[in-house]
Amino acid sequence: MSSLTVDHWEWSAWKFLSAGGALELNVPPTHQVRKGSETIIPCTVTVYKPPVDPSLLLIFWIFQGEEILSYDDTVTTSDDRVSINTTRVIDGDASLSISNVTVTDSGVYTCVILYSLEIMEKSVSLSVYAPPNITITERIAFINKESVLRSSIIGFYPMDIDVKWFRDGKTVNNYSVSTPQRNHDGTYSVYSTLIIIPTKKDRNNIFSCKIQHASLPRPRQKDFQLDYIVGSLELIVPPTHQARMRSVTRIPCKFSVDTPTADPRYLKIFWNFQGEQILSYDGTLTKTDDRFSIDTTKVVDGDVSLQIFNVSLNDSGVYTCLVLYNRKMKEKETSLFVYAPPKITITGRIAVVNKESILCSLITGYYPVDIEIKWFRDGEILNYYRLFKPQRNTDGTYSVYSTVTIKPTEQVRNEVFSCKIQHASLSRPRQKDFELEYIDDKDEESDYTIRWGVAVTVCTMLLKFVYEKCQKSFMKSNHSTKTNLYLKTVFQAEAKVGAASSYSPTQNTNIIHQRKGSYTFRGKLQLP
Fold this sequence. Notes:
8% of the residues lie in helices and 44% in strands. By secondary structure, it is mainly β. It has four domains: 6-129, Immunoglobulin-like (Sandwich); 133-228, Immunoglobulin-like; 233-339, Immunoglobulin-like (Sandwich); 343-503, Immunoglobulins (Immunoglobulin-like, Sandwich). The chain starts with 5 loop residues before the first helix and ends in a 25-residue tail after the last strand. Residues 1-6, 8-20, 469-501 and 505-528 have low confidence and may be disordered. Residues 33-127, 132-225, 247-337, 342-435 form the Ig-like domain.
C-alpha cells in the first residue's frame, strides 16, 4: 500500500465524511489463465446501501507491490493491456481485465476498495500456463545399428515437465531429457533423445513420446513409426535403347531398395536429356514437354521408366536417370537410337524385248542414312546397277533411288526381278519381287520414246532434288558470287559398265556414274 499517495488519502478524508456503512469484498484466492488469451480477475464489492455511489468509490489494483490501475471517476493505467468495465462499477464490479496474457503476468494481484470512510483489500494469485507442443525431430533408423530418436517439447510454462518414451505401449528407459531452456517469451523448451538398435521386426512398431505438464488435464502423446535409411540403392538402366520413329517408347529405369516398397516422402526422380532436365517427380510431376512422362503409380515399386510419345529423330541422344532416396543417390546414362525402316517402291518395270530397259526402285523414309541395295534376276545378283545420292526429307529421314539396266529376251519373259535392301533398322533384309511389264517393240521410234522417257523421268526427279539443294545453299550464302555450289549437268547417252552396292556418307559420291544404256548426271556437288 506504500504506492498510494498522500493526496489520495487527503482527498478521501473530506470526500467521505458523511458516508458510512458495512463493506464486503469478494476476490478468489487463485486464478488461472492460458498464455496469449484474455482474462478477467474477479473483484466485487457489496455495500450496506446499494447501489454503489461512484462518487464515493476509489478502486486500486496492485501487482507485485506496484500500482497498475486506479479509478476515481476516470481510469488511469500503467499498461494498456489492463482495464476495468466502468459501466459495471455501479453494480460493485471492480474486476481487472488483462488482454494478451504473458508469462510475466504471473504473480499476486491486490484489489483495493475505498468506499465512504471504509477501506478493504484482498489478493489473488494469477497463474499463467502454456501447454507444451511435441515434435518428433529425428525418426530415421538404421537396421541393426545404433539409431537416435529425438523429440522437441517447446513453449511450455511453468518449467516442470515429465517426459517418457514407449515402444508399442511399453516403457523404454534408454532415454534422456535436456535441462529446460528459457525462451524469449518466458516459456521453456526441452529436448529428449532415445537410443535404440532397430531390427527388421521394428518396422511396424509404434514409438511414442508422452509428456505430463501442469497445463494439461491429461498426458499428451506423439506416436510415430521409424523411417529406415536405405542400406543399398541399386539402379538398373540399359546402356542403349532403340525406338521406332513416331512410336511410343519406354526407356527403362528401375531402382531397388532394401524395403519392399519405397517411401514416396523421401523419393525424388529426375530425367535429363543431353545434360538438360526434362522431367522431375517428388510427388508432383514436372516436365518440359508433354510427350515425356513416367507412370507415377509404379514409382514406389521402383519403376521410373521414361515414356516418350510420338518419338522423333530429335529425341536421339543421351538420357540420364537419377534417383534420390533418403540420403542415397544413383544415376545412370543410356543412349537412345531412333530409327525409321525403309519402304521399297518399284517405280519402273517396263521392258522391251531385246532392247535395253531401265528398272527403277525408290527407297523412302529411312534413318540412319547408311543403306545397302542389291538387284537380282531369278535369285542371281545383277552387278550393273546404279545408286543415287540419298535425299534428306523434311522429317529428317532419307530417300534414295536405284536403277538397273537390262536387255530382256523373248525367252525370259517370266523372270522374277528383286530389289533387296539392308538397313540398321531391319532385323533381316527386306526385298521387293516383281515381274517386267513387256511392250512389243514393232517400231524403233516407239522404243526410243519408251526407253528414254523412263530415263528422263528418273533424271528429272534427281535434277529437282539437286536444284532444291542448290537453291537452299544459295539462300544461305551472304553473296551469290561466293556460293559454294558449282553445278554442271550433262545429259548424254553412254555405254559404260560398273557396279554400285551401297551408300554411305563416308564415300565420295559427288560424281554419279552412268550405267550401260541410260542417261548420265555428272557434276561437282557441294551441299551445305
